[in-house]
Protein backbone atom coordinates (compact mmCIF):
# COMPACT_ATOMS: atom_id res chain seq x y z
CA UNK A 1 0.00 0.00 0.00
CA UNK A 2 1.31 3.42 -0.92
CA UNK A 3 1.36 6.01 1.86
CA UNK A 4 2.04 9.71 1.45
CA UNK A 5 2.72 12.77 3.59
CA UNK A 6 0.11 15.44 4.39
CA UNK A 7 2.04 17.81 2.17
CA UNK A 8 1.92 15.36 -0.77
CA UNK A 9 -1.86 15.10 -0.30
CA UNK A 10 -2.25 18.87 -0.37
CA UNK A 11 -0.25 18.84 -3.62
CA UNK A 12 -2.53 16.11 -5.04
CA UNK A 13 -5.61 18.20 -4.22
CA UNK A 14 -3.99 21.27 -5.73
CA UNK A 15 -3.09 19.49 -9.00
CA UNK A 16 -6.50 17.83 -9.31
CA UNK A 17 -8.15 21.24 -9.00
CA UNK A 18 -5.69 23.42 -10.96
CA UNK A 19 -4.39 21.06 -13.69
CA UNK A 20 -7.44 18.85 -14.19
CA UNK A 21 -10.10 21.45 -13.52
CA UNK A 22 -11.99 19.38 -10.96
CA UNK A 23 -13.81 21.84 -8.69
CA UNK A 24 -12.76 21.58 -5.03
CA UNK A 25 -16.38 21.41 -3.87
CA UNK A 26 -16.89 18.40 -6.17
CA UNK A 27 -14.00 16.60 -4.44
CA UNK A 28 -15.51 17.59 -1.09
CA UNK A 29 -18.91 16.30 -2.15
CA UNK A 30 -17.34 12.97 -3.21
CA UNK A 31 -15.36 12.78 0.04
CA UNK A 32 -18.46 13.37 2.17
CA UNK A 33 -20.56 10.91 0.17
CA UNK A 34 -17.92 8.15 0.39
CA UNK A 35 -17.57 8.73 4.15
CA UNK A 36 -21.33 8.45 4.55
CA UNK A 37 -21.41 5.18 2.58
CA UNK A 38 -18.75 3.70 4.85
CA UNK A 39 -20.50 4.99 7.99
CA UNK A 40 -23.85 3.55 6.91
CA UNK A 41 -22.21 0.22 5.95
CA UNK A 42 -20.56 0.03 9.36
CA UNK A 43 -23.24 1.47 11.66
CA UNK A 44 -26.57 0.97 9.89
CA UNK A 45 -28.48 2.73 7.13
CA UNK A 46 -32.02 2.32 8.39
CA UNK A 47 -32.30 5.77 9.98
CA UNK A 48 -33.44 6.61 13.48
CA UNK A 49 -29.88 6.87 14.76
CA UNK A 50 -28.34 9.96 16.25
CA UNK A 51 -25.14 11.52 14.99
CA UNK A 52 -23.20 14.52 16.22
CA UNK A 53 -20.87 15.94 13.59
CA UNK A 54 -17.94 17.99 14.94
CA UNK A 55 -16.70 20.38 12.28
CA UNK A 56 -13.55 22.49 12.27
CA UNK A 57 -13.31 25.73 10.35
CA UNK A 58 -11.43 24.31 7.30
CA UNK A 59 -12.26 21.83 4.55
CA UNK A 60 -12.21 18.85 6.90
CA UNK A 61 -15.21 20.52 8.52
CA UNK A 62 -16.59 20.96 4.97
CA UNK A 63 -16.55 17.19 4.51
CA UNK A 64 -18.45 17.00 7.79
CA UNK A 65 -21.28 19.23 6.42
CA UNK A 66 -21.63 16.94 3.40
CA UNK A 67 -21.80 13.89 5.67
CA UNK A 68 -24.43 15.60 7.85
CA UNK A 69 -26.59 16.28 4.77
CA UNK A 70 -26.35 12.70 3.51
CA UNK A 71 -27.09 11.23 6.95
CA UNK A 72 -30.16 13.50 7.24
CA UNK A 73 -31.36 12.24 3.85
CA UNK A 74 -31.06 8.70 5.18
CA UNK A 75 -33.25 9.46 8.16
CA UNK A 76 -30.63 9.99 10.84
CA UNK A 77 -31.08 12.66 13.55
CA UNK A 78 -28.11 14.95 13.04
CA UNK A 79 -26.60 17.81 14.96
CA UNK A 80 -23.58 19.73 13.67
CA UNK A 81 -21.29 21.49 16.14
CA UNK A 82 -18.98 23.94 14.37
CA UNK A 83 -15.95 25.11 16.35
CA UNK A 84 -15.94 28.54 14.74
CA UNK A 85 -18.16 31.54 14.08
CA UNK A 86 -20.35 31.27 10.99
CA UNK A 87 -18.50 34.13 9.26
CA UNK A 88 -15.20 32.25 9.58
CA UNK A 89 -16.35 29.46 7.22
CA UNK A 90 -15.15 30.16 3.70
CA UNK A 91 -14.66 28.65 0.24
CA UNK A 92 -15.73 25.07 -0.48
CA UNK A 93 -16.68 24.49 3.16
CA UNK A 94 -19.14 27.41 2.97
CA UNK A 95 -20.70 25.97 -0.20
CA UNK A 96 -21.44 22.77 1.75
CA UNK A 97 -22.51 24.60 4.92
CA UNK A 98 -25.28 26.62 3.25
CA UNK A 99 -26.96 23.40 2.09
CA UNK A 100 -27.68 22.43 5.70
CA UNK A 101 -30.85 23.44 7.58
CA UNK A 102 -30.07 26.09 10.22
CA UNK A 103 -31.82 24.22 13.01
CA UNK A 104 -29.21 21.45 13.13
CA UNK A 105 -26.26 23.88 13.31
CA UNK A 106 -24.57 25.13 16.47
CA UNK A 107 -21.58 27.49 16.33
CA UNK A 108 -19.39 27.07 19.32
CA UNK A 109 -16.06 28.89 19.02
CA UNK A 110 -15.37 29.37 22.73
CA UNK A 111 -13.96 26.89 25.21
CA UNK A 112 -16.36 25.74 27.96
CA UNK A 113 -19.63 26.23 26.10
CA UNK A 114 -19.30 22.86 24.41
CA UNK A 115 -19.37 20.96 27.68
CA UNK A 116 -22.00 23.13 29.38
CA UNK A 117 -24.49 23.13 26.46
CA UNK A 118 -23.94 19.95 24.47
CA UNK A 119 -22.59 17.33 26.87
CA UNK A 120 -25.97 15.55 27.02
CA UNK A 121 -26.38 15.43 23.22
CA UNK A 122 -22.85 14.14 22.78
CA UNK A 123 -23.38 11.40 25.37
CA UNK A 124 -26.65 10.34 23.71
CA UNK A 125 -25.21 10.08 20.16
CA UNK A 126 -24.84 6.68 18.49
CA UNK A 127 -22.15 8.15 16.26
CA UNK A 128 -19.68 10.99 16.56
CA UNK A 129 -18.23 12.23 13.30
CA UNK A 130 -14.81 13.80 13.73
CA UNK A 131 -14.46 16.43 10.99
CA UNK A 132 -12.39 18.85 13.06
CA UNK A 133 -8.96 18.78 11.47
CA UNK A 134 -7.41 16.93 8.56
CA UNK A 135 -4.25 17.50 6.58
CA UNK A 136 -4.32 21.21 7.52
CA UNK A 137 -3.39 20.53 11.17
CA UNK A 138 -0.38 22.74 11.85
CA UNK A 139 -0.08 23.26 15.61
CA UNK A 140 -0.95 21.63 18.93
CA UNK A 141 -4.63 21.44 19.84
CA UNK A 142 -5.75 24.07 22.32
CA UNK A 143 -8.92 25.53 23.80
CA UNK A 144 -12.21 24.40 22.31
CA UNK A 145 -10.54 21.89 19.93
CA UNK A 146 -8.92 20.14 22.87
CA UNK A 147 -12.23 20.19 24.72
CA UNK A 148 -14.03 18.67 21.72
CA UNK A 149 -11.50 15.85 21.39
CA UNK A 150 -11.80 15.02 25.09
CA UNK A 151 -15.63 14.94 24.79
CA UNK A 152 -15.50 12.69 21.70
CA UNK A 153 -13.09 10.27 23.39
CA UNK A 154 -15.22 10.05 26.53
CA UNK A 155 -18.55 9.59 24.71
CA UNK A 156 -20.04 6.08 24.52
CA UNK A 157 -20.95 6.29 20.79
CA UNK A 158 -18.84 5.02 17.88
CA UNK A 159 -16.39 7.45 16.33
CA UNK A 160 -15.84 7.92 12.60
CA UNK A 161 -12.92 10.17 11.64
CA UNK A 162 -12.87 12.06 8.38
CA UNK A 163 -9.50 11.77 6.63
CA UNK A 164 -7.46 11.35 9.85
CA UNK A 165 -8.33 11.38 13.56
CA UNK A 166 -8.10 15.04 14.59
CA UNK A 167 -4.91 15.79 16.48
CA UNK A 168 -2.81 13.20 14.62
CA UNK A 169 -0.19 14.78 12.40
CA UNK A 170 -0.63 13.46 8.88
CA UNK A 171 3.09 13.22 8.18
CA UNK A 172 4.71 12.21 11.48
CA UNK A 173 1.88 10.27 13.14
CA UNK A 174 2.51 12.23 16.34
CA UNK A 175 -0.25 13.32 18.72
CA UNK A 176 -0.43 17.11 18.67
CA UNK A 177 -1.39 17.54 22.31
CA UNK A 178 -4.61 15.51 22.17
CA UNK A 179 -6.11 13.29 19.46
CA UNK A 180 -9.39 11.55 18.65
CA UNK A 181 -9.51 7.76 18.99
CA UNK A 182 -11.60 6.54 16.08
CA UNK A 183 -13.30 3.23 15.33
CA UNK A 184 -13.33 3.98 11.62
CA UNK A 185 -11.25 6.41 9.55
CA UNK A 186 -12.14 7.17 5.94
CA UNK A 187 -9.32 8.83 4.07
CA UNK A 188 -9.05 9.97 0.48
CA UNK A 189 -6.97 8.88 -2.53
CA UNK A 190 -4.03 7.44 -0.52
CA UNK A 191 -3.29 6.48 3.07
CA UNK A 192 -1.17 9.03 4.91
CA UNK A 193 1.99 8.40 6.91
CA UNK A 194 0.10 9.44 10.04
CA UNK A 195 -2.26 6.47 9.60
CA UNK A 196 0.54 3.90 9.76
CA UNK A 197 3.20 5.48 12.00
CA UNK A 198 2.83 5.25 15.77
CA UNK A 199 1.25 6.65 17.84
CA UNK A 200 -1.15 7.77 15.08
CA UNK A 201 -1.74 4.18 13.93
CA UNK A 202 -3.33 3.37 17.30
CA UNK A 203 -5.95 6.12 16.85
CA UNK A 204 -7.17 5.20 13.38
CA UNK A 205 -9.33 2.10 14.00
CA UNK A 206 -10.34 0.48 10.69
CA UNK A 207 -8.88 2.44 7.79
CA UNK A 208 -10.74 2.82 4.49
CA UNK A 209 -9.04 4.52 1.55
CA UNK A 210 -11.80 6.01 -0.60
CA UNK A 211 -11.65 7.06 -4.24
CA UNK A 212 -12.97 10.64 -4.51
CA UNK A 213 -12.35 11.11 -8.22
CA UNK A 214 -8.76 12.34 -8.15
CA UNK A 215 -7.22 11.35 -11.51
CA UNK A 216 -4.95 8.30 -11.22
CA UNK A 217 -2.03 10.01 -12.91
CA UNK A 218 -2.07 12.60 -10.11
CA UNK A 219 -2.15 10.17 -7.17
CA UNK A 220 0.24 7.70 -8.83
CA UNK A 221 2.94 10.27 -9.46
CA UNK A 222 2.85 11.70 -5.91
CA UNK A 223 5.99 11.01 -3.88
CA UNK A 224 5.14 8.18 -1.53
CA UNK A 225 6.38 5.36 0.68
CA UNK A 226 5.66 1.64 0.55
CA UNK A 227 3.78 0.29 3.56
CA UNK A 228 4.79 -3.35 3.67
CA UNK A 229 1.90 -5.68 4.45
CA UNK A 230 1.72 -9.45 4.23
CA UNK A 231 0.60 -9.42 0.62
CA UNK A 232 3.54 -7.29 -0.51
CA UNK A 233 6.03 -9.24 1.59
CA UNK A 234 4.71 -12.52 0.12
CA UNK A 235 5.40 -11.22 -3.37
CA UNK A 236 9.08 -10.85 -2.42
CA UNK A 237 9.57 -14.41 -1.17
CA UNK A 238 11.31 -16.74 -3.64
CA UNK A 239 10.59 -20.43 -3.99
CA UNK A 240 13.60 -22.71 -3.85
CA UNK A 241 14.46 -24.76 -6.93
CA UNK A 242 13.79 -28.49 -6.42
CA UNK A 243 17.42 -29.07 -7.36
CA UNK A 244 18.81 -26.72 -4.70
CA UNK A 245 21.82 -27.79 -2.65
CA UNK A 246 23.63 -26.16 0.24
CA UNK A 247 26.33 -24.88 -2.11
CA UNK A 248 23.94 -22.66 -4.03
CA UNK A 249 21.89 -21.39 -1.07
CA UNK A 250 24.71 -19.15 0.05
CA UNK A 251 27.38 -19.17 2.75
CA UNK A 252 27.23 -16.50 5.49
CA UNK A 253 30.17 -15.50 7.61
CA UNK A 254 29.12 -14.00 10.95
CA UNK A 255 31.85 -12.08 12.78
CA UNK A 256 30.55 -11.39 16.25
CA UNK A 257 30.91 -11.76 20.01
CA UNK A 258 32.99 -10.63 22.97
CA UNK A 259 33.11 -11.79 26.60
CA UNK A 260 29.58 -11.71 28.02
CA UNK A 261 28.05 -11.46 24.54
CA UNK A 262 28.51 -14.92 23.06
CA UNK A 263 24.72 -15.15 22.91
CA UNK A 264 24.50 -12.29 20.40
CA UNK A 265 26.96 -14.07 18.11
CA UNK A 266 25.17 -17.41 18.37
CA UNK A 267 21.73 -15.85 17.84
CA UNK A 268 22.86 -14.09 14.66
CA UNK A 269 24.47 -17.27 13.27
CA UNK A 270 21.58 -19.58 14.19
CA UNK A 271 19.09 -17.09 12.74
CA UNK A 272 20.98 -17.14 9.43
CA UNK A 273 20.46 -20.92 9.43
CA UNK A 274 16.75 -20.53 10.25
CA UNK A 275 16.37 -17.94 7.48
CA UNK A 276 17.61 -20.41 4.90
CA UNK A 277 21.35 -19.84 4.40
CA UNK A 278 22.95 -22.96 2.87
CA UNK A 279 25.95 -22.72 5.19
CA UNK A 280 26.86 -20.48 8.12
CA UNK A 281 30.26 -19.91 9.70
CA UNK A 282 30.56 -18.07 12.99
CA UNK A 283 33.96 -16.47 13.60
CA UNK A 284 34.46 -15.14 17.12
CA UNK A 285 37.23 -14.36 19.66
CA UNK A 286 39.29 -17.48 20.42
CA UNK A 287 38.36 -17.39 24.14
CA UNK A 288 34.69 -17.88 23.18
CA UNK A 289 35.24 -20.59 20.59
CA UNK A 290 34.52 -23.55 22.84
CA UNK A 291 31.34 -21.96 24.16
CA UNK A 292 30.11 -21.38 20.60
CA UNK A 293 30.89 -25.00 19.74
CA UNK A 294 28.58 -26.10 22.54
CA UNK A 295 25.82 -23.62 21.72
CA UNK A 296 25.63 -24.30 17.96
CA UNK A 297 24.98 -27.42 15.91
CA UNK A 298 24.50 -26.60 12.24
CA UNK A 299 26.83 -23.59 12.38
CA UNK A 300 30.58 -24.01 11.76
CA UNK A 301 32.84 -22.04 14.06
CA UNK A 302 36.25 -20.40 13.68
CA UNK A 303 38.44 -19.02 16.49
CA UNK A 304 39.76 -15.52 15.73
CA UNK A 305 42.86 -13.84 17.19
CA UNK A 306 41.77 -11.81 20.21
CA UNK A 307 43.29 -9.58 22.86
CA UNK A 308 43.95 -11.00 26.33
CA UNK A 309 40.67 -9.56 27.56
CA UNK A 310 38.78 -11.44 24.83
CA UNK A 311 37.99 -8.57 22.40
CA UNK A 312 38.64 -9.05 18.70
CA UNK A 313 42.17 -7.98 17.78
CA UNK A 314 43.39 -6.17 14.66
CA UNK A 315 45.29 -9.37 13.70
CA UNK A 316 41.92 -11.03 13.11
CA UNK A 317 41.63 -9.06 9.85
CA UNK A 318 43.78 -11.31 7.57
CA UNK A 319 42.09 -14.42 9.03
CA UNK A 320 38.64 -12.98 8.28
CA UNK A 321 39.73 -11.84 4.81
CA UNK A 322 40.92 -15.38 4.14
CA UNK A 323 37.51 -16.75 5.18
CA UNK A 324 35.68 -14.19 3.03
CA UNK A 325 37.23 -15.58 -0.14
CA UNK A 326 34.83 -18.53 0.08
CA UNK A 327 31.76 -16.77 1.55
CA UNK A 328 28.86 -14.85 0.01
CA UNK A 329 27.95 -12.40 2.77
CA UNK A 330 29.52 -10.95 5.90
CA UNK A 331 27.40 -10.17 8.96
CA UNK A 332 29.48 -7.99 11.25
CA UNK A 333 28.96 -6.53 14.67
CA UNK A 334 26.62 -8.38 17.05
CA UNK A 335 28.20 -8.29 20.51
CA UNK A 336 31.70 -7.24 19.40
CA UNK A 337 31.90 -4.33 21.88
CA UNK A 338 33.85 -1.11 21.36
CA UNK A 339 37.53 -1.82 22.02
CA UNK A 340 39.75 0.44 19.82
CA UNK A 341 41.34 -2.63 18.18
CA UNK A 342 37.89 -3.98 17.32
CA UNK A 343 36.86 -0.59 15.92
CA UNK A 344 40.01 -0.62 13.74
CA UNK A 345 39.12 -4.13 12.59
CA UNK A 346 35.62 -3.01 11.49
CA UNK A 347 37.11 -0.06 9.58
CA UNK A 348 39.70 -2.32 7.95
CA UNK A 349 37.09 -4.86 6.83
CA UNK A 350 34.92 -2.12 5.34
CA UNK A 351 37.92 -0.93 3.32
CA UNK A 352 38.95 -4.36 2.05
CA UNK A 353 35.88 -6.62 1.84
CA UNK A 354 34.13 -6.63 -1.54
CA UNK A 355 31.16 -8.84 -0.71
CA UNK A 356 27.77 -7.70 0.69
CA UNK A 357 27.88 -6.79 4.37
CA UNK A 358 25.22 -6.46 7.06
CA UNK A 359 26.49 -4.34 9.94
CA UNK A 360 24.77 -4.09 13.30
CA UNK A 361 25.29 -3.11 16.95
CA UNK A 362 28.90 -2.21 17.82
CA UNK A 363 29.79 -2.53 14.14
CA UNK A 364 27.60 0.57 13.73
CA UNK A 365 29.16 2.30 16.70
CA UNK A 366 32.57 1.70 15.09
CA UNK A 367 31.30 3.46 11.95
CA UNK A 368 29.87 6.31 14.07
CA UNK A 369 33.41 6.98 15.37
CA UNK A 370 34.50 7.80 11.80
CA UNK A 371 31.71 7.98 9.23
CA UNK A 372 34.20 8.74 6.46
CA UNK A 373 35.04 5.03 6.46
CA UNK A 374 31.82 4.56 4.48
CA UNK A 375 33.28 6.72 1.70
CA UNK A 376 36.61 4.84 1.80
CA UNK A 377 34.96 1.44 1.66
CA UNK A 378 35.52 -1.10 -1.08
CA UNK A 379 32.68 -1.25 -3.64
CA UNK A 380 30.13 -3.46 -1.95
CA UNK A 381 26.51 -3.55 -0.80
CA UNK A 382 26.30 -2.38 2.80
CA UNK A 383 23.17 -2.83 4.92
CA UNK A 384 23.16 -0.97 8.25
CA UNK A 385 20.57 -1.98 10.85
CA UNK A 386 20.61 0.67 13.63
CA UNK A 387 18.15 1.03 16.48
CA UNK A 388 17.25 4.66 17.32
CA UNK A 389 20.25 5.09 19.67
CA UNK A 390 22.69 3.77 17.07
CA UNK A 391 21.03 5.92 14.39
CA UNK A 392 21.47 8.99 16.58
CA UNK A 393 25.17 8.18 17.02
CA UNK A 394 25.59 7.59 13.27
CA UNK A 395 23.79 10.83 12.49
CA UNK A 396 25.58 12.76 15.25
CA UNK A 397 22.44 14.13 16.94
CA UNK A 398 20.53 13.45 20.20
CA UNK A 399 18.00 10.57 20.11
CA UNK A 400 14.83 12.76 20.54
CA UNK A 401 15.89 14.93 17.58
CA UNK A 402 16.28 11.85 15.39
CA UNK A 403 13.04 10.22 16.60
CA UNK A 404 10.97 13.26 15.58
CA UNK A 405 12.10 13.02 11.95
CA UNK A 406 13.24 9.41 11.67
CA UNK A 407 12.21 8.91 8.05
CA UNK A 408 14.01 12.04 6.89
CA UNK A 409 17.14 11.15 8.89
CA UNK A 410 17.20 7.60 7.50
CA UNK A 411 16.71 8.85 3.94
CA UNK A 412 19.45 11.43 4.23
CA UNK A 413 21.93 8.94 5.68
CA UNK A 414 21.20 6.23 3.12
CA UNK A 415 21.51 8.66 0.20
CA UNK A 416 24.63 10.42 1.47
CA UNK A 417 26.53 7.24 2.24
CA UNK A 418 25.15 4.98 -0.48
CA UNK A 419 23.95 2.32 1.98
CA UNK A 420 20.76 0.37 2.65
CA UNK A 421 19.48 1.56 5.98
CA UNK A 422 17.11 -0.37 8.25
CA UNK A 423 16.07 1.91 11.12
CA UNK A 424 14.54 -0.41 13.70
CA UNK A 425 11.59 0.37 15.96
CA UNK A 426 7.80 0.10 15.98
CA UNK A 427 7.28 0.46 12.19
CA UNK A 428 10.86 -0.13 11.07
CA UNK A 429 11.88 2.18 8.22
CA UNK A 430 13.90 0.83 5.28
CA UNK A 431 15.67 3.10 2.81
CA UNK A 432 17.65 2.17 -0.31
CA UNK A 433 20.63 4.26 -1.47
CA UNK A 434 18.42 5.81 -4.18
CA UNK A 435 15.95 7.01 -1.52
CA UNK A 436 13.22 4.39 -2.03
CA UNK A 437 11.55 4.06 1.36
CA UNK A 438 9.42 1.33 2.92
CA UNK A 439 7.67 1.08 6.28
CA UNK A 440 7.22 -2.31 7.90
CA UNK A 441 3.74 -3.38 8.94
CA UNK A 442 4.57 -6.52 10.98
CA UNK A 443 5.77 -6.96 14.56
CA UNK A 444 4.60 -6.19 18.08
CA UNK A 445 5.85 -4.72 21.37
CA UNK A 446 6.81 -8.18 22.68
CA UNK A 447 9.83 -7.83 20.41
CA UNK A 448 11.23 -5.09 22.65
CA UNK A 449 13.76 -7.44 24.27
CA UNK A 450 17.46 -8.25 23.97
CA UNK A 451 18.72 -10.27 21.03
CA UNK A 452 15.98 -9.35 18.54
CA UNK A 453 18.42 -7.20 16.55
CA UNK A 454 20.94 -10.05 16.33
CA UNK A 455 18.21 -12.24 14.82
CA UNK A 456 17.40 -9.59 12.19
CA UNK A 457 21.08 -9.33 11.23
CA UNK A 458 21.18 -13.09 10.65
CA UNK A 459 17.97 -13.02 8.59
CA UNK A 460 19.04 -10.24 6.22
CA UNK A 461 22.49 -11.81 5.78
CA UNK A 462 20.89 -15.18 4.96
CA UNK A 463 18.56 -13.64 2.37
CA UNK A 464 21.45 -11.82 0.69
CA UNK A 465 23.41 -15.08 0.66
CA UNK A 466 20.49 -16.81 -1.06
CA UNK A 467 20.61 -14.29 -3.88
CA UNK A 468 17.87 -11.84 -2.92
CA UNK A 469 18.58 -8.36 -4.32
CA UNK A 470 19.55 -6.11 -1.38
CA UNK A 471 16.34 -4.04 -1.38
CA UNK A 472 14.23 -7.22 -1.33
CA UNK A 473 16.45 -8.79 1.33
CA UNK A 474 15.95 -5.76 3.59
CA UNK A 475 12.18 -5.57 3.11
CA UNK A 476 11.49 -9.30 3.25
CA UNK A 477 13.91 -9.76 6.15
CA UNK A 478 12.32 -7.05 8.26
CA UNK A 479 8.81 -8.28 7.47
CA UNK A 480 9.68 -11.92 8.27
CA UNK A 481 11.27 -10.87 11.56
CA UNK A 482 8.07 -9.06 12.61
CA UNK A 483 5.83 -11.85 11.31
CA UNK A 484 7.76 -14.46 13.32
CA UNK A 485 7.27 -12.19 16.34
CA UNK A 486 3.54 -11.99 15.59
CA UNK A 487 3.38 -15.80 15.39
CA UNK A 488 5.00 -16.05 18.84
CA UNK A 489 2.54 -13.45 20.19
CA UNK A 490 -0.39 -15.39 18.73
CA UNK A 491 0.72 -18.61 20.42
CA UNK A 492 1.95 -17.41 23.82
CA UNK A 493 1.34 -13.66 24.07
CA UNK A 494 3.71 -10.74 23.75
CA UNK A 495 5.18 -10.51 27.22
CA UNK A 496 8.17 -12.73 27.87
CA UNK A 497 8.86 -13.38 24.20
CA UNK A 498 12.54 -14.17 23.58
CA UNK A 499 14.69 -13.72 20.50
CA UNK A 500 15.13 -17.51 20.47
CA UNK A 501 11.32 -17.98 20.45
CA UNK A 502 11.14 -15.70 17.44
CA UNK A 503 14.03 -17.37 15.64
CA UNK A 504 12.34 -20.77 15.95
CA UNK A 505 9.24 -19.42 14.15
CA UNK A 506 11.17 -18.13 11.12
CA UNK A 507 10.56 -21.23 8.95
CA UNK A 508 6.84 -21.03 9.73
CA UNK A 509 6.75 -17.32 8.91
CA UNK A 510 8.51 -17.98 5.60
CA UNK A 511 6.12 -20.80 4.82
CA UNK A 512 3.12 -18.59 5.53
CA UNK A 513 4.31 -16.09 2.93
CA UNK A 514 4.90 -18.83 0.36
CA UNK A 515 1.46 -20.32 1.02
CA UNK A 516 -0.05 -16.92 0.50
CA UNK A 517 1.55 -16.76 -2.95
CA UNK A 518 0.04 -20.15 -3.72
CA UNK A 519 -3.43 -19.10 -2.54
CA UNK A 520 -3.23 -16.04 -4.71
CA UNK A 521 -2.32 -17.96 -7.82
CA UNK A 522 -5.10 -20.52 -7.12
CA UNK A 523 -7.63 -17.71 -6.64
CA UNK A 524 -6.58 -16.02 -9.83
CA UNK A 525 -7.30 -19.22 -11.73
CA UNK A 526 -3.67 -20.00 -12.45
CA UNK A 527 -2.19 -23.43 -11.94
CA UNK A 528 -0.48 -23.67 -8.56
CA UNK A 529 3.19 -24.51 -8.50
CA UNK A 530 3.45 -27.34 -6.01
N1 LIG B 1 -9.73 20.24 -2.24
C1 LIG B 1 -9.24 19.79 -1.15
O1 LIG B 1 -8.21 20.29 -0.68
C2 LIG B 1 -9.97 18.70 -0.44
C3 LIG B 1 -9.85 18.60 0.92
N2 LIG B 1 -10.56 17.73 1.62
C4 LIG B 1 -10.61 17.82 3.07
O2 LIG B 1 -9.98 18.98 3.52
C5 LIG B 1 -9.02 18.69 4.52
C6 LIG B 1 -7.94 19.71 4.45
O3 LIG B 1 -8.56 20.97 4.56
P1 LIG B 1 -7.82 22.27 5.06
O4 LIG B 1 -6.58 22.45 4.29
O5 LIG B 1 -8.82 23.34 5.05
O6 LIG B 1 -7.35 21.88 6.52
P2 LIG B 1 -8.16 21.40 7.81
O7 LIG B 1 -9.62 21.41 7.58
O8 LIG B 1 -7.51 20.18 8.25
O9 LIG B 1 -7.81 22.53 8.89
C7 LIG B 1 -7.38 23.78 8.51
C8 LIG B 1 -7.86 24.86 9.45
O10 LIG B 1 -7.65 24.52 10.79
C9 LIG B 1 -6.72 25.44 11.39
N3 LIG B 1 -5.88 24.64 12.30
C10 LIG B 1 -4.74 23.97 12.04
N4 LIG B 1 -4.32 23.35 13.16
C11 LIG B 1 -5.21 23.63 14.14
C12 LIG B 1 -5.30 23.27 15.50
N5 LIG B 1 -4.41 22.51 16.10
N6 LIG B 1 -6.35 23.76 16.21
C13 LIG B 1 -7.28 24.53 15.62
N7 LIG B 1 -7.23 24.90 14.33
C14 LIG B 1 -6.21 24.46 13.60
C15 LIG B 1 -5.99 26.08 10.26
O11 LIG B 1 -5.54 27.34 10.62
C16 LIG B 1 -7.08 26.14 9.21
O12 LIG B 1 -7.93 27.22 9.40
C17 LIG B 1 -8.61 17.27 4.26
O13 LIG B 1 -8.12 16.66 5.42
C18 LIG B 1 -9.91 16.67 3.76
O14 LIG B 1 -10.68 16.26 4.86
C19 LIG B 1 -11.58 16.90 0.96
O15 LIG B 1 -12.74 17.65 0.98
C20 LIG B 1 -11.21 16.55 -0.44
C21 LIG B 1 -10.83 17.77 -1.23
K1 LIG C 1 -10.61 14.57 11.21
UniProtKB/TrEMBL annotation:
Query: Per UniProt, what is one GO molecular function of this protein?
Result: ADP-dependent NAD(P)H-hydrate dehydratase activity
Instruction: Please list the residues that bind AMP.
Output: 424-428, 453
Q: Which residues form the YjeF N-terminal domain?
A: 9-220
Q: Where does K(+) bind?
A: 60, 130, 166
Q: Which reaction does it catalyse?
A: (6R)-NADHX = (6S)-NADHX; (6S)-NADHX + ADP = AMP + phosphate + NADH + H(+); (6S)-NADPHX + ADP = AMP + phosphate + NADPH + H(+); (6R)-NADPHX = (6S)-NADPHX
**Residue ranges annotated for the YjeF C-terminal domain, each copy included:** 229-513
- Requisite cofactors: K(+); Mg(2+)
Q: Does the keyword Lyase apply?
A: yes
Transmembrane stretches, start-end: none
- Co-factor: note: Binds 1 potassium ion per subunit.
Keywords attached to this Swiss-Prot or TrEMBL record, sorted alphabetically, are: ATP-binding, Isomerase, Lyase, Metal-binding, Multifunctional enzyme, NAD, NADP, Nucleotide-binding, Potassium
The EC designation for this entry is 4.2.1.136, 5.1.99.6
Kindly list the positions annotated as binding (6S)-NADPHX. 59-63, 134-140, 145, 163, 264, 335, 387, 454
Complex and partners: Homotetramer.
Q: Which family does it belong to?
A: In the C-terminal section; belongs to the NnrD/CARKD family. Belongs to the NnrD/CARKD family.
What function does this protein fulfil? Catalyzes the dehydration of the S-form of NAD(P)HX at the expense of ADP, which is converted to AMP. Together with NAD(P)HX epimerase, which catalyzes the epimerization of the S- and R-forms, the enzyme allows the repair of both epimers of NAD(P)HX, a damaged form of NAD(P)H that is a result of enzymatic or heat-dependent hydration. Catalyzes the epimerization of the S- and R-forms of NAD(P)HX, a damaged form of NAD(P)H that is a result of enzymatic or heat-dependent hydration. This is a prerequisite for the S-specific NAD(P)H-hydrate dehydratase to allow the repair of both epimers of NAD(P)HX.
Supply the NCBIfam families for this chain.
yjeF_cterm, yjeF_nterm
Kindly provide the name given to this protein in its UniProt entry.
Bifunctional NAD(P)H-hydrate repair enzyme
Amino acid sequence: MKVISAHAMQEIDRRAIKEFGIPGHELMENAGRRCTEEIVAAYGGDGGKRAVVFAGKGNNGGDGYVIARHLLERGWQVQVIVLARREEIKGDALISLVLLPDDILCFCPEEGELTSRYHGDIQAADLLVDALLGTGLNHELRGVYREAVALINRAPGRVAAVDIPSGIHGTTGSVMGQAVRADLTVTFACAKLGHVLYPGAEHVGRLVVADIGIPQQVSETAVGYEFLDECQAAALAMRRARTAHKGNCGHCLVVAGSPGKTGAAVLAANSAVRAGAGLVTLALPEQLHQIAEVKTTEVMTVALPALENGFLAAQARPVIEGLLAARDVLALGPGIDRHPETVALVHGLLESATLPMVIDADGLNAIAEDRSVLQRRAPQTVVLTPHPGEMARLHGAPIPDVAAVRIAVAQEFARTHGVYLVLKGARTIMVAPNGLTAINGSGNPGMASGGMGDVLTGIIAALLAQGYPPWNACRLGVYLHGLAGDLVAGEQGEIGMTASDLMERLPRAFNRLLNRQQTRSLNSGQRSII
